[in-house]
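Morning, I've got a small favour to ask if you have a moment. I owe you a coffee for this, so here goes:

…
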Amino acid sequence: MTLAPGLRSQLLIMVERSDTAEKIGSGDVPVLATPRLLALAEMATVKAVHAHLAPGETTVGTRVELVHLAPSPLGTHVQITTELTEVDGRRLVFGFEARDKQNVVGRGTIERVVVDRAKFLDRATRQ
């Protein structure tokens, strides 16, 4: 495993109807849904470390802190940037920020843990 602080990743999306609070059910307005913003931020964290994991390893989310600061209506381009800020054994901490052309849309931290995929799935299916 070659994980070290500083690994970065970016995603750029255009808000579509499927991304909205109205469609997801987290509200009734046609703007980027908070759960969708979180999913995008998590996707960026996965992307940041994927190539640096050993064969058979993956990461799973364990903790999230998210502040959704501004609405992003349909058609808005939103860029999500994430950076690995801390590595503590198998625990990874990321900071992220989402921006449109004018605003910081959201920011926060995501913690993930590196796990052996097969062992993790075995434990998950035994319950």
